[in-house]
Hints:
The chain has helices at 22-50, 56-79, 123-133, 155-164, 177-187, 207-211, 238-246, 248-261, 276-283, 303-326, 332-349, 361-370, 395-415, 428-442, 444-460, 470-490, 496-505, 507-518, 542-563, 571-595, and strands at residues 111-118, 143-150, 167-169, 193-198, 202-203, 220-224, 236-237, 265-266, 299-302, 378-381, 387-388. Helices cover 52% and strands 8% of the residues. Strands 3-2-1-4-9-6-10 form a seven-stranded mixed beta sheet, with helices on both faces. By secondary structure, the chain is α/β, with parallel strands linked by helices.
Amino acid sequence: xxxxxxxxFEHRKPPEPLRTPTWxxxxxxxxxxxGLILGANYIRWRWMESLNMDALWYAVPLALAETLAWIGxxxxxxxxxQVKDPECPPPPDDINHCLVPQxxxxxxxxxxxxxxxxxxEDVELVRLSIQDALKMHYPSEIIYRIHVLDDGRRPEMRAVxxxxxxxxxxRDNNIGYKAGNIRNGMEHTDGDFLVxxxxxxRVFPTLLTxxxxxxxxxxxAWVQTPQWFFDLPEGERLHAWLKRKVGLPGYLxxxxxxxxxxxxxxxxxxxxxxxxxFYDVILRRRNWANAAFCCGAAxxxxxxxxxxxxxxxxxxxxxxxxxxxxxxxxxxDTRAALSRAMLPxxxxxxxxxxxxxxxxxxxxxxxxxxxxxERRWRSVMHPTIESxxxxxxxLLTWMIQRFKYAAGSLDIxxxxxxxxxxxFRLSPGQTLMYATTFWSYMAxxxxxxxxxxxxIYLFTGIxxxxxxxxxxxxxFLPFFxxxxxxxxxGTWGISAxxxxxxxxxxxxxxxxxxxxxxxxxxxxFDVTPKERQTGRFLYLVKPQIAIxxxxxxxxxxxxxxxxxxQVDDPSGYVINIFxxxxxxxxxxxxxxxxxxxxxxxxxxxxA
Length: 607
């Protein structure tokens, strides 16, 4: 068995789910409401009293960006308003415990198929996933099978499956990519439940014990479990890093700082890969609205739900195709006759796709199931980590992955007709949650405005407001301070700054995704590499470097103007110096990630 870079991390244990005290949640909610009210007042003031009428070309786009950002804050507040984890009953020992009464039949154990989808990954890496899947345990009898779905059609992969005693499934084409691969796997299996894994998904033995109980509710369609990248660099303790850099004074300063703020590390998670903000806060807190969507790997699905979504989608596609040719025919009898004549041909030409052949098949299928007005399928975001997987080890891989997420979601929003289907209806809560997802990807537009605006002021001295005077501070500062405090408590236990920096620095990736979708270009199904790609990747962060360089030049130029007494109101420069400094701080982690290379040996870490 080869020795991989992550072999030294195998001992790591996953973090426990966040446990937010009730008093902290109440404090967060009070501060969040106060922040939104103060924000609304600030937006009102911006539009009605503060616009610089001599520079509307600058003032209006910034005020609009602030308004759209406030709407995003409102949606995000609703999203993370409360933690409402559903109770998980004991795991079922009879499939009838998971069915509606009219569907119950002969008593038997539940059947579970675990799929490991692979294409070109190292077969020995897949072997590790197989071996961990073989360790699955369950408190009662269960029919459990492991299937490797190999779209690479590799003899060596088949040989590994034979050696490990698991089923090998392949096909003679790659239609639909991963979604098509899973569809092919479903055609060759009959499990009641499906566990979806990527090639590097290493499930824990407790996965089924801790998740199948949710399916005692016959309306639960899938359970998503958190993804945990166990190979993230753990970094170096602050006091140890400072000691290496400046000696004993640094060590003492680091100890005092950690005594005040808690454990601090340098060099951890160079690619913002820590998924806890997404899984443990954003997605987990959508349980209250039954709006936690599927994220693929480490999820458990009810076959019945997947197939029902496929059948409904199939019917809709057939009806839509017929309507496309017959919709302009006014005579009702002629239209009906042509529809009947076309029906068998359209049926034979239309594929049944349990998972949509789409770059974001997971969220697409989630929307279809959540919006099924005839069944009202439910989802669960399980709070506890039940598997481990590998993180991207270079910026190129990381950006390919993030581009797919953004472009796939925006393609659904702008081009797919799923929201116009008959018998499709999301609840108000689900509508808000999916709107939050789509809105977050649209934010690249106003984030670009926030990055450019201080440059305009620093180089030209033209303010976007009528004056940086007392009214500005009275409206802006309370809103800013209360909002910062609110989200500090609302995401307690996770670095809010890391999430914000990632959100802001992603502007170029998401702008490219938005441009791709609006131009109608086909989104490629690029396979996310599992091995580190060689080289430095500064060419990927040219926009971020440009923002940093231009902001630094603007700060220098603005400082010179203030020093020469060329500025009537230096307070405007103080605001924009702070603003520009925040922008630089947000861009730097991505730039550093472009230059990061994994160490040959693990850094010594201090407890």
